[in-house]
Structure formats: C-alpha cells, structure tokens
Amino acid sequence: MAALPHSASSGDPALDRRLDWARALCDEGDWPAAADLLADTVAAAPGFAAAWFLLGEARQAAGDAAGAAEAFATARACDADDTLGAGLRLARLGQAPAEGAMSAAYVRTLFDQYADRFDSALRDKLAYRGPELLLAALVRGAGEGRRFRHGLDLGCGTGLAAPLIAPRVEVLDGVDLSPAMLAKAETLGLYGRLDAADMGDALAAAPRAGLDLIVAADALCYLADLQPLFAAAARALAPGGLFAFTVETHEGVGVLLRETLRYAHAAATVRAAANAAGLDVRRLEEASTRTEKGVPVPGLVGVLERP
What is the DSSP secondary structure assignment for residue 269, as one 8-state letter? Predict the structure, then answer.
C-alpha cells in the first residue's frame, strides 16, 4: 500500500479520521470493509484525493479492477500534480499508457518521505550496489587513470555515488527532484553544486559540451522513454565525454512498468535510445544493482560516449 503524503486531508477532521480507520482496515487485510468505508468517505468529500486513492488500492486488493481504475482516475482528476501516483496505478491496470504515467510530484513526494531511511534501506535491506557497478564500468570503459573535469550526478539522491565518483572529477554537481534527499547529499561536502530539478531540465540548462562525465545510479528506472534524456546528455557532453548509468531490465521488448512502479528497459531499447541520441554504446552489460524480496533484480550497467 502506498504511503500517503502527511498533508493529504479533506479539510474535515471527521473525514480524515475515516481515512485513518480505512488504512487500519487495509493493514489488517479487510479490503471490502475498507472499500465500503472509503466509498462513504468520498461520497461526503468528492474532492478528497487521498481517500479516492486508498479506495483504488482497497478495491484492487479485493479483486475489483474496474472499481479500482475508477477510483484511481478520480484521484488523479482531484490532484493535477498526481502526487500520489494514481497514473502509475492506472498504467499497471492497463487503463493508461506507461509512458508519462510517473509524475515529478509523485517522485518528489516519495523521496522526501524516504530520505531519512533511504541509505539504510538500500544498503542493508536491498543489497544496493549501483555506485560500485558504475565505477567498475567506468574503469573498464575509460581506464583506471582517467580523470574528469566536470561531472553531473543525475538523480543523486543522498549522494551514495559521490564517495566513489567525486575523487575522479575536479567538480561534481548533483541534481535530484527531492529537496530532502539533497539536504542529505549536501552534508557529504563532495558536490560543487546541488540543484532540485528534473534530470532532463538540468541537462538542458548545462552549457553545451560543458560536461565530460554524467552518471545516473538507479535513477533511469523512473523514466519510461530514455531517448529525450540521452539526447539532452549528448548536447551537454563534450566530445569523448561519458555517460555511465544503471537501469532495470527484462527479457521482453520495449519498456515494462514493474509491480514496484519502476520502469524496466529491454537492452535493445536502451541501445536504440542511445543510437537515436547520437551516442556510442561503449558498454552495456547485465548487472543487478539491488534485490527485491531477496532476489536480484535484473539490470544493466552502461557507458555511452559522445563521439
């Protein structure tokens, strides 16, 4: 069940308490009772996005896919920014395209809430090793001795990649949608500049050919279409500059929105996006950055070069 923003409110304390009671019923697995309570709640407060969203989750868990889709669609209509990620739920139900389903507000809210426990959750519970894979791929692709003048860490989060990447870069900047994550990254003292921004917007704002290294550890799984980001990277990279990244992958074709609400990209799709952006694929290898329920999540680590 998705975490709801602490600010989610109907404006009526009595109805807000119903939301808490419904959440407790969901936690107990009593989905039909939760759905009934939530249906009464949204009848009294038709614009209560958080209640509509939880109603969608309750109906889906109870096996009512059509009712869940209706509730998620209404939740999204009540919240133009789609902070709760109703678009992703509709995509998983086959009621909306996967591309464009993940809103910036959803990602920002998710990681603002997650920031305090992010590092321990990834390292201790999910065996996360994205930064180590990136560094190894860079060494294999560029040589142990190569140093970089100006780098950008896309989706830098709390800065988990910085201790490994910063020693190889004269100036390493970072960008992330979540101000709470950036506050954690700032304490490391390893970044020249940290900006709260969309990854593509940050690349578009960078001086043309002003970067010679871009890294993205466990960040591209929040993008359905990689080609626009790759094109922005090609513009920002100097000739010979490198873009090292990790993605989740799958054995099929195209892009898959996984149950974890993260995108997985087939290897051929990654190559096609890089080629369309005018970047050469120097390395694209199978490597898992993390586990889910103790099982390695299929992934790829890649290094692209601006010719």
Answer: H
Among 192, 139, 193, 128, which residue's Cα sits nearest to residue 161? Answer: 128
* pLDDT tens digits along 127-185: 999 999 999 999 998 878 899 999 999 999 999 999 999 999 999 999 999 999 999 99
Q: Using CA atoms, how far apart are residues 192 and 71, in angstroms rounded to an integer?
A: 44
Which residues sit opposite 246 in a β-bridge? 301
Distance, CA of 233 to CA of 242 (rounded, Å): 9
Q: Please report, for residues 139, 162, 247, 252, 295, the alpha-carbon distance to residue 298 in angstroms, rounded to integers and kept in the order given.
A: 22, 24, 9, 12, 9
Q: Where are the alpha helices (DSSP H) in the chain?
A: 13-27, 31-44, 49-61, 65-78, 86-92, 104-114, 118-120, 130-142, 162-165, 179-186, 199-205, 227-236, 267-276
CB 158 within 8 Å of CB 139:
no
Give 30's contacts (C-beta < 8 A, 6+ positions apart): none
Among 46, 97, 132, CA closest to 257:
97
Task: Read off the pTM.
Answer: 0.92
The one-letter code for the residue type at 61 is A
- Reading the block at residue 300, the tokens are 């790829």
d(CA 19, CA 10): 9
Phi-psi region of 155 (alpha: psi -120 to 50; beta: other; left: phi over 0): left
DSSP one-letter string for 133-166: HHHHHHHHHH-TT--EEEEEEET-TTTTTHHHHG
φ, ψ for residue 90 (rounded to 5)? -65, -40
Identify the CA nearest to 176 among candidates 84, 111, 123: 111
Instruction: Note whether 172 and 165 are within 8 A (CB).
Output: yes
pLDDT 10s digits, 46-66 = 999 999 999 999 999 999 999
